[in-house]
Amino acid sequence: MKEVVNEILAAEKRVEQTLSDARRKAAEIRQESEKEVAAIIAAAHEEAQRIIRETSDAARMEAETRREKALNDIASENRVLRERSRGRIDDLIDEIVSLISAPAFSETQR
Questions:
Q1: Residue range(s) defining the domain that contains residue 49
Q2: Residue 68 half-sphere exposure, CB side, CA atoms within 13 Å?
């Protein structure tokens, strides 16, 4: 009977050791997994920041290009308007001068 009790106690001890080893191994695996997950998250975060930075830079460059084009278009339109207006202004000046120099204008002013 003593032998049976000793065998049961030895078996319980082996089971406890096996459970202890399994818990230790599980803790190691969990710790390693947490490190891997942390590394993956850090890499994903860096990649996301890189993408945001590149997208922001591209958007900024696109906005600057559009701004420059708009300014150039406006400057070009202004030049065209000035050229068109120049002839009309010259015509108006000639008309005003002729009205002032006309005899009817001179007589009514006196």
A1: 2-109
A2: 6
Tokens of 30: 């969990």
Strands (E), the chain: none
User: Could you tell me the pTM of the whole model?
Assistant: 0.53
Element spanning 26, H or E:
helix 2-101
Give the separation between CA 76 and CA 82, rounded to whole angstroms. 10
pLDDT by residue (tens digit) across 13-42? 999 999 999 999 999 999 999 999 999 999
41, with CB counted inside 10 A (0-12, 13-18, 19+), is exposed
Contact 99, 105 (CB under 8 A): yes
Gap between the Cα atoms of 59 and 62, Å rounded: 5
Overall number of domains in the chain: 1
